[in-house]
Amino acid sequence: MKSKTYKRATALAAASALVGSVVIPVAAAPAETPEKFSDVPTSSSHYETILEARALGIMTGYGDSTFKPDQKLNRGNVAKAFGKYVVAKSGLTLEEYVEANNISEVENFTDVPNDWVDEELVTYSKIVKEAGIFKGANNKLGASRLMPRDQIAEVLVRAFGFENQEGDPGISDTDQSGYAKSIETIYENGISNANPYRPLESTSRGQFASFLVRAYKVAEGLDPQSPYPFPVESVHDVEDLTISVGETPELPETVGVTLESGVTTTKAVEWNTNDLATDEIGTYTITGDVADTDLTASVQVVVKKPTYSFPVTYGPHPYEVNTIVVDTEALTGSALDFSNYKFNGGPLPSGTTIKIGEKANLFITLASDQEVTEDFEYILEIQNVKTVSGRYLIEKLVIGEDGEVEPVNIKIPGTFAENVPPTLVSADYVVTSEAAEITNTIQLTFSEDAMLIPQDWDDDITFKVGDTEVNHESVYYDGDGKIYIEIPTMDINQTSTITIVPEGENNERLGITDVSLGRNPVVAPATKTITKDDVVVIGTAEELAEAE
């Protein structure tokens, strides 16, 4: 941000100089207390800057506690305001400034001659003319004309020395004005946040307050969108906190404050918890030092006996592997704290996710970033998970050795599904004897036992003899961990290929999986070429029956 920066004392004096009948009508009177203006609602976009304008002495309200934010300003009002700003910025009195800068020799605007009825306007119009803030079309001030917003942008840039920044801020309606560059400059410097800017509309008192306060902040190197750093007048009350015995209260990191301007904001607070006994039932008042002030905040912490929610229904998700569903009432954020869970006595596996459902269900999806080659049993323990009603989820209550009632944590047994998909190891022609020369079946062997899940398996297999694709008749498995494909009868001296397709046309996922709990689909695509050397002998059904 490029701008001229003035020392605080000078800037404050300059800002104070903006007060007067040029901006505030004769009937107006400075507010003695930071009361809210009756005609400036908190929903107004100018609410905070109007309060700050009053506190800075830039603008005040009327004696009836109104500000009249929608009242329009004329060029004479604004010329006087900026004339006083120029004088105050110099550090001189009006008389000293006039003499030092030979203001009496400055050519009058033709419509504000020396004998003009408003002597103050005569002087200040010369000052702003000499300072280059007001130039006037055809050397006329047009004091009674309403001041459009684009001209306000121009005089702000001239008065405060704001500089244009590189790039196009993209204000949509600057082509309507001859002051496009000044409009862009005050937008880039944070003096205006309006896009479109509405350059030809007249300027209201509320808008002028916002323009001046933001310009004042930027001139002091402050963020124009943040409250001006007036001293804190009061600290807001903090809502009581209720915890169960043994819990640590979540004390707020900031507290609400009201500044002397009447603007509300927040300040950091450092709490003193030396007198808080979280292991004893009672009500404790905790105080904290509010940053940048000598004020303190306070909050009451109520420590109560814990209550419990049980029994709790839980079980595996019907469709999602390694996911546990816990049916409960609405839960607090404690349900998302991984430290409240133990997996076989240790932390949750890396990659585990926890989600609270729309119907208060808790979904815990276990995961592993390492290969799990076999299904294994586990115990998931849940502790310190709290409902929004303040009750802890537990399995049950029991009577301890000391006769006191004690909670028992939820312990959910489950089976963690292996996550290694099987691979196709071999494909063989099935023959009924070593002398057989024909086959009508192919056997697929995988790195682990495989099975079929119910769907259209035919789309998972492509069978070719030579380069010709041949329809296969069925795919099945006999429970021996291998997959069998029935094909048209063919000579085993012919070479063929079998390809497992990742997704068939009618399949949502591959129908050939391992036999684990996770039903991992085989790695695909996978192709095997079958020759006369790739033969497995399996007797006929009659021979097998006789052997038994």
TrEMBL record:
Record keywords:
Carbohydrate metabolism, Glycosidase, Hydrolase, Polysaccharide degradation, Signal, Xylan degradation
Q: In the record, which residues are listed under signal peptide?
A: 1-28
Q: State the InterPro entries in the record.
A: Big_4, SLH_dom
Q: Which is a GO BP term held by this UniProt record?
A: xylan catabolic process
Q: Which PROSITE patterns match?
A: SLH
List, for all copies, the residue spans of the domain called SLH: 33-96, 166-226
- Which Pfam families does the entry mention? Big_4, SLH
Name the EC number(s).
Answer: 3.2.1.8
- Gene Ontology molecular functions: endo-1,4-beta-xylanase activity
Q: What is this protein called?
A: Endo-1,4-beta-xylanase A
Q: Which organism is it from?
A: Bhargavaea cecembensis DSE10
User: Lineage of the native species?
Assistant: Bacteria, Bacillati, Bacillota, Bacilli, Bacillales
